[in-house]
UniProtKB/TrEMBL annotation:
Family (UniProt): Belongs to the NnrE/AIBP family. Belongs to the NnrD/CARKD family.
Task of the protein: Bifunctional enzyme that catalyzes the epimerization of the S- and R-forms of NAD(P)HX and the dehydration of the S-form of NAD(P)HX at the expense of ADP, which is converted to AMP. This allows the repair of both epimers of NAD(P)HX, a damaged form of NAD(P)H that is a result of enzymatic or heat-dependent hydration.
Cofactor binding mode and count: Binds 1 potassium ion per subunit.
Transmembrane annotation, as ranges: none
Assembly description: Homotetramer.
GO biological process, one term: metabolite repair
Domain YjeF C-terminal: 207-466
Keywords for this protein: ATP-binding, Isomerase, Lyase, Metal-binding, Multifunctional enzyme, NAD, NADP, Nucleotide-binding, Potassium
Record's protein name: Bifunctional NAD(P)H-hydrate repair enzyme
Protein's organism: Streptomyces glebosus
Domain YjeF N-terminal stretches: 4-201
Record: residues binding (6S)-NADPHX: 52-56, 116-122, 144, 242, 296, 341, 408
Length: 468
């Protein structure tokens, strides 16, 4: 967050005193008004700490009070509260709360301005108690980010505010996009306050237009080889379905052709007769532009060395990850993309799953650096990282993807994009984006349980969503 702080300092040096805070407060007040629907006669409670977020909340509260809202401010450090904001609130008819639980219990909206982006650690007991009361009583809007979360990493150490919406200023903070903090941020709204930021961010989230630009499209003279042939080593006697799902993802992910190697050829051909099958080993299966290996292979790891020895990009998922070493991956000349979930990432890093889930950004960066590979860390917020450069976070994920086989489909989609010539970072990012869109389509607007096969079936529609 030092980048944002530096941009704020540079802008404040050029603006009249207090102008930047007024810009933030104006955007915050508009968002609060929209959430309330009717400002006049509504009851708003401000949770005010000693930093600039508290000042933003106070000035926004003053704007709401001038529009007829009853605004009460709960001051956690009365002597250190923003004096200009306090004066503005009082002048507009707002008041200082003398009974915080009562005011929160009656509120139509609570504004969290307890801690800013410089906060570290969880909330103190009093703040935590009132934050819980607010969540149970009324919609909560966080100022810049929910208090108690780490702005740089998305980690949550102790108690933190859970917001229905977060109004953030100048730039999206990593903590707003990465779980576990992402789950506490609610709907996000960005207010432009005029910051000048570096071209390269620490974190990127692709949007439709970005994905549309990256998606490979066949030219009039294309044939299946020019579009990309992806090899899939997946499935076993125990898990034939993994092969079917990985092939489904690859075919619907845009591959010109899919070569399947493994013991589940009959099951694959029964569903997808266009698949090219081979009993193996992979290096005898024919020409491919990329390999996918791992889903459902169990302990059958003999093919892994064949695949790693190929001078084409390789995606390693699921069971294939168990047999990797950093040294073997690092000596490859072509790109390697690893796609673990949190449990598999924990095994690769030699730590507990809960540690990975609590520090997803640090974990994916460490894995990428250790293996010299691109790493796609699956989960509630999917992250794609290389050893250097910005980490990408996927904005289309949904909890409905927590279903058996969805990772196999993702591997197939992403492998097809590798075969089409996308770099591993782009293939992982675009594959996760399409996968998430397909899952949302399968679940429907109100959300419903879905199957991995349904996700695969909606991939074509996800392409159309992006390209039209």
């Amino acid at each position: 967050m030092e980048t944002v702080r530096a941009a704020e300092r540079e802008l404040m040096a050029r603006l009249p005193e207090g102008a930047l805070m007024q810009r933030a407060a104006a955007g915050l007040a508009v968002a609060c008004g929209e959430l309330l629907g009717k400002v006049y006669g509504s009851r708003v409670v401000l949770l005010v700490g000693s930093g600039d977020n508290g000042g933003d909340a106070l000035y926004a509260g003053a704007r709401l009070a001038r529009r007829g809202a009853g605004v009460a401010a709960v001051l956690f450090s009365p002597q250190r509260a923003h004096q200009g904001g306090l004066a503005a609130l009082r002048a507009a008819g707002g008041r200082i709360s003398d009974d915080a639980p009562r005011d929160i219990g009656r509120a139509d909206l609570v504004v969290d301005g307890i801690v800013g982006i410089g906060g570290r650690g969880g909330l103190r007991p009093k703040a935590a108690q009132l934050a819980r009361a607010a969540w149970e009583s009324a919609p909560v809007v966080a100022v810049d980010l929910p208090s108690g979360v780490d702005a740089d990493s998305g980690e949550v150490h102790g108690d933190a505010v859970r917001a229905d919406a977060t109004v953030t200023f100048g730039a999206y903070k990593p903590g707003l996009l990465i779980d576990p903090a992402r789950d506490r941020a609610g709907a996000l709204r960005l207010v432009d306050i005029g910051l000048t930021l570096p071209q390269e961010a620490e974190l990127e989230a692709l949007q439709h237009e970005d994905v549309a630009e990256l998606l490979p499209r066949p030219a009039p003279e294309s044939d299946k080889y020019r579009r990309g042939v992806v090899g899939v080593v997946a499935g076993s006697a125990r898990y034939p379905g993994a092969a079917v799902l990985a092939v489904a993802g690859a075919l619907r992910g845009g591959a010109g052709a899919v070569r399947y190697v493994g013991p589940a050829a009959d099951a694959v051909l029964a569903r997808f007769p266009e698949t090219l099958v081979h009993p193996g080993p992979p290096d005898k299966a024919g020409r491919v532009q990329a390999w996918v290996i791992g889903p459902g292979i169990g302990d059958e790891a003999d093919a892994l060395e064949d695949v790693l020895a190929a001078d084409v990009p390789v995606l390693v998922d699921a069971d294939g990850l168990r047999f990797l070493t950093p040294e073997r991956v690092r000596e490859r000349r072509a790109e390697t993309l690893l796609t673990p979930h949190a449990g598999e990432a924990a095994a690769l890093l030699g730590r507990g799953r809960e540690e990975v889930e609590a520090a997803r950004l640090a974990s994916v960066r460490e894995l990428a650096a250790r293996y010299g590979a691109t790493v796609l860390l699956k989960g509630s917020t999917t992250l794609v990282a290389e050893a250097d450069g910005p980490v990408r976070v996927n904005p289309t994920g949904t909890g409905w993807l927590a279903t058996a086989g969805s990772g196999d489909v993702l591997s197939g989609v992403t492998g097809s994009l590798l075969a089409a010539g996308l770099p591993a970072r782009d293939a992982g990012s675009v594959g996760a984006y399409l996968h998430g869109l397909a899952a949302r389509r399968a679940a429907g607007p109100d959300g419903a349980p879905i199957l991995a096969s349904e996700v695969a079936a909606h991939l074509g529609a996800a392409w159309r969503d992006v390209t039209h």
